[in-house]
Amino acid sequence: MRRPSTLELMLLATVVLWALNLTVTRYILTHGFEPLAYATVRYGLATAIFLGIVLVGERTLRIARPDLPLAAVAALFIFLNQLSFVYALDRTTASTIALILGATPAFAALIGLVLGLERLSRRFWIAAGISFAGVGLVAVGSGRDVSGDRLGILLGLATAATWAAYSVAVGPLMQRYSASRISVVALGVAWVGILLVGLPQTTDQELGLGWEVWALLLFATLGPLVLTTVMWFRVIHRIGASRATLVANLQPFVAAIFALVLLSESMSALQVAGGALIAGGILTARRRPPSPMPE
Question: d(Cα 202, Cα 220) in Å, to the nearest integer?
C-alpha cells in the first residue's frame, strides 16, 4: 500500500475540519446567533482575511473579463450554499446534515458530466457506490436521529447540490488564479448578498453571547472556511471536483465521532460498519491501476 500523498492528506484535513464545523455551527446557532447574522459576520471576516492575503502576496484582485461570468456563477452558488447551510443546521441536527452531505459527489459528478468537464471511470462509480452504501448504513445506524425536520433535510440537499456546483464552477478558474483571489471575488460578492438579505437579523443580533460562542465563530472562520478553502481548491485543481468530493463521504462518519466525543452521543455497530465501507470506497478510488506493459 502506497503512502498517502500530500494532496490526500490535505483533503483528509479539509474533511475533518468540515465535519467539526457542523457541530461548531450547530452549537453557535443554538446558543443565540441568528442564522443570517452568523453567516454575515463569518463571511465578512473571511473576505477581509482573503483580501489581505491577496493584496500582500499578489498585489492584484484582477479577474480577466472573459472569466467574470464564471466567477459570478461561483459567487451565486456560494451565496445559495450559505443560506441553505445555516438554515439547515438551524432546523435540524448536525449529524443529519452530515449524512445528507454524502450526496455531494453524486451532484458534482452529474454537473461535471452535463457540462463535459469531467470523464469518470468505472472505478470511480464502483468506489462511489461502496461509499454511498456506507453512508446509508451510517444513516440507518443513526436511528431516530436521522428523522429531522423535512425542510431542514431539503435544505441539506440544497447545501450539497450548491457546494458541488460551486466546486465545479471554480475548477476552470483555478487554472488561472489562486484560491485566495477566487475566494476574495466569489466570497466577497456572496457576502454582499448575505449582508443585504440578513440585515434585519444582523442589526437585531444580541452580542452578549459569551466568549465561547465568539471563540467558536473565530475558529469556524479561520479553520473550516479560510484554511479549508485554500486546501480544497488546490486539491480539486489537481484531481477534479468529483474525485475530491468522493472523499467527503468520510464526513458523516467523522461527524459521528465528534458527536460521540463532544456531545456524548452513541454510535451503533451499523455506523461503524458504514464508516468501514466509506473508507473502503475511498481506498478503491485512490488505488493506482496496474502500469501498462511496454509494447
Answer: 18
What Å distances lie between residue 287 and 6, 35, 163, 245, CA to CA? Answer: 15, 41, 26, 16
For residues 256 and 267, the answer to whether their CB atoms sit within 8 Å is yes
Q: Does pLDDT of 78 surpass 90? A: yes
Distance, in Å, from the CA atom of 190 to the CA atom of 39, rounded to the nearest integer, reads 10
pLDDT at 293: 31
Instruction: Decide if 161 contacts 109 (C-beta within 8 A).
Output: no
Cell numbers linked to 161: 447540490
User: Distance between CA atoms of 271 and 246, rounded to whole angstroms?
Assistant: 18
Instruction: For residue 248, give Cα distances in angstroms to 14, 17, 18, 132, 201.
Output: 9, 11, 9, 11, 31
Q: Residue 174: which of 58, 106, 247, 74 has the closest Cα?
A: 74
* Tens-digit pLDDT profile for residues 218-237: 999 999 888 988 887 778 77
240 Rama class: left (phi>0) / alpha (psi -120 to 50) / beta: left
Angstrom distance (rounded) from CA 256 to CA 228? 20
Quote the CA–CA distance of 178 and 174 in Å, as a whole number: 6
- Residue 90 CA to residue 151 CA, distance in Å, equals 10
Q: Tens of pLDDT along 238-254?
A: 777 667 766 766 776 78
103-129 burial, b at 16+ Cβ within 10 Å, e below that, comes to bbbbbbbebbeeeebbeeeeebeebbe
DSSP state letters, 51-100: HHHHHHHTS-----GGGHHHHHHHHHHHHHHHHHHHHHHHHS-HHHHHHH
- 172/170 Cα distance (integer angstroms): 6
